[in-house]
Amino acid sequence: MEEKAIVVQDLIKEYPRVTAVDGVSFTVDKGEIFGLLGPNGAGKTTTIRILLTLIQPTSGETLIYNLNTAKNSEEVRRMCGYVPQDVSADGDLTAYENVLISSKLYGMPAKERKQRIHDVLSFLELTDRANDMVNTFSGGMMRRLEIAQALVNRPRVLFLDEPSIGLDPNARRIIWGLIKKLRDEFNTTIMMTTHDMGEADVLCDRIGIMNRGHLATLGKPAELKSAVGGDIITINSSNPNCIQKVKELGYSVISNATDGHCDLIVNNGETLIPQLLDSLKVRGVLVESVSLKKPTLDDVFLKYTGARIEEGDTFAETRRARRAFSRRS
Amino acid sequence: MRAFSAVKKYFANALIIAELELRKIRHDQTQIWVRMVQPALWLAIYGLTMSKLGVNTYIPAGLSYLQFMTPGVLAQSALFVAIFFGINVVWERDLGLLNKLLSTPASRSSIILGKAFSAGVRGIFQAIAVIVLALILRIHLIMNPLSILGVFIIIVMVSMCFACLSMAIASLVKTRERMMGFGQVMTMPLFFASSAIYPLNLMPAWIKPIAYINPLTYVVDAMRDLLATGNLHTLPVDILVIVAATVLFLVLASLGLKKMVS
Lengths: 329, 262
Fold this sequence. Notes:
The complex is a heterodimer.
Chain A: E1 6-14, E2 19-28, E3 33-37, H1 44-51, E4 59-64, E5 67-68, H2 73-79, E6 80-83, H3 95-105, H4 110-123, H5 139-151, E7 157-161, H6 169-186, E8 189-194, H7 197-203, E9 206-211, E10 214-219, H8 221-227, E11 231-237, H9 242-248, E12 252-253, E13 261-266, H10 269-282, E14 287-293, H11 297-305, H12 315-328
Parallel strand pairs in A: 3-8, 3-9, 6-7, 7-8
Antiparallel strand pairs in A: 1-2, 1-4, 4-5, 9-10, 11-13, 11-14, 12-13
Chain B: H1 2-27, H2 30-35, H3 37-52, H4 65-82, H5 86-95, H6 97-102, H7 108-136, H8 145-173, H9 176-192, H10 208-213, H11 215-229, H12 235-261
Helix pairs in contact in B: 1-7, 3-4, 3-7, 4-7, 4-8, 4-11, 5-8, 7-8, 7-12, 8-9, 8-11, 8-12, 11-12
């Protein structure tokens, strides 16, 4: 059997009040970009932190390049790079110093240090700002610096926790380009979490969708999208029986909201809409608006979890996301 | 041999963490200057005023009150700053810096030790301020290079000791506001239940046992031996107690750090 970059087997992490990760298993190949997708609180970050030995799992096994992360924590940390979701570059130091301290903590020999720091800063296009204080940086530059810190050690596995959270679209595209370049040029295995379907679609070779601690589904983006089965029609109606009536008409409904918001999967949505509206009118359901969508990962998520991705934020998660955003902008 | 390289790596990592902290100070020295204010006030206002009350007769070993008190102010200034050090760690946890540090190969306790050491180095600046002021006020102290070096070493140790205590408490209380409160609650008892500004034998009897288990008492004693009396008989015991307390708090803080991020 070929050696896997990451193996997660029956992973469980219980906290006193919640089970953050509840029996998750998957593997990641070398050189793969693997995405864990899901709403906040789904267990993505907990999974990453267990792999990085920051948290002890309640049960289950995690291996990185055949090393058990619970037993060989120092060796595992030595071959991994980590870019946390929160801002983690130190604003009270220069960019160069931030990378310097990282390189020292990873035990890089003094002889190679200077060259490597130079290389990694130029790879992330930060050379001209190397000696500026980080608290003057924009959110996108700060993110690039954080990636530089994680890369200076040339990790075999890079963990990115919500790499583009709080970034503007332009900065986001730059980060995406870098992640791809990193894999293509250095064959680095990359494991990332995101709740942005677009990001996962653009970057990831394979995606695992997590919800409430479970892995709902796993596959290539294209496979997952085709598994949704067709186009999605969304109907908005003030009539509370809307879903009921649509179901009676024999359509496959994938949402279970009670506010008259109804998603159904069909083939050839364009031609079906007039017919559907007529049938509903006959049954006394007044439709306020209709939209048609070709499948996206968001729909995949909806199909496997029955909820839209925006739902399920805890108070603490929302506060953290906002704070991260306000610091970056 | 393997054990030796592990120990070497442990201290090397602690030094890198300290370097990180000290580089920050280099970029912003304000905090160093601000730190000098409080001990200066204690010495120049409290010390001079108390001297006029005729307290010199109560001071043992034929010292003047200012001679007696200057080592106390040194210890106290280190305590007052170090006891709030845990706020940094809570802040770094909130920012996410701590998670990143913990994901590096450096061990938890080497991170704590490094941070404590940086607190110690900051303490040296306070020691310099107090010694310079003592010279200006013409307080007669033992000013040979060895005693000054000794004072610097002790001040680094006491800052490390209380910074570790503070980080241990920070890992329990987990918020900056509560940490401010706990810092306040701890400083005064530690300060008053020591011989920093009055001799132990004048204290109410019930407080003496507390003074004997208070690391600050031993710190003050060590400083006083070095700077005022020149009698170094109890110095080894003092150092032993400070080191033991530091190691204890270091272990507690390291264990706490684990809990802090999960």
